[in-house]
Give the backbone structure.
Amino acid sequence: MKYILWLFSVYEFRTPTARTPRPDASRRPSARPPARSPPTLPPALLCTHRAATLLRLPIGFRSGAELSRSATGSVTFKNGATSLGSATLNANGIATLTKTNLPAGSLSVTAAYNGDSETAKSTSASLSQTVNQATTSKTVKSSLNPSPLGQAITFTATVTSPTTTATGSVTFMDGANALGTVTLSGGKASYGTSTLGTGPHSITVVYGGTANITGSTSLPLVQTVN
């Protein structure tokens, strides 16, 4: 509760009918501005420049508060209970966080304002952010094609993505028959064999994918064994 103290001067006159002068208005203290209310972070002020994004594509979250004087301090962005990072408010009361490693799926992002000396803490309503799985392309190459019967051959698979490095494993296939499964390293995997029979062989690579990367099958490589 605020109190305003008004100061008056008292004058004594000998004539009873004389009017007591009113205090000089110029000497009154000016009215103090009302206290600022704690800021709110409405959903419209927590926004993203991508409604849906591929894994690891840069994505920015922005938060702000409508205040008579811009708030200071920082904002912590969260996906559910997991912190995505913090950002400092600029002169306009806006904080921006850019992320390139969000997990695939539907995220529930909030912005928690950490408060300053004059502004209370508050948390925004959640924003739904969709992150799609990363896409991939796959190729398979042979170390020797055509090859003589009994010759050792090495097949090399390469799995690439425009937004991330593929992880997991690939299975080398000869038609419908699995030759072997190999773990990717740097997006590549190799498999060697010397047991292919004579004739053409349709070699493909099946990538199983991960929670963040889609799986698929390469185009066939025709390996001829003479």
Remarks:
- The CA atoms of residues 46 and 63 lie 5 Å apart.
- The chain has a mean pLDDT of 78.
